[in-house]
Amino acid sequence: MARGRKNPWISAVLNFIIWGVGYIYNGKRVGFGVLLLLADVIGMTLLAFSLAIINPAFWFTITILSIAFAYDGYKEAKEINRQR
Question: How crowded is residue 13: how many other Cβ atoms within 10 Å of its Cβ?
Answer without folding.
Answer: 17
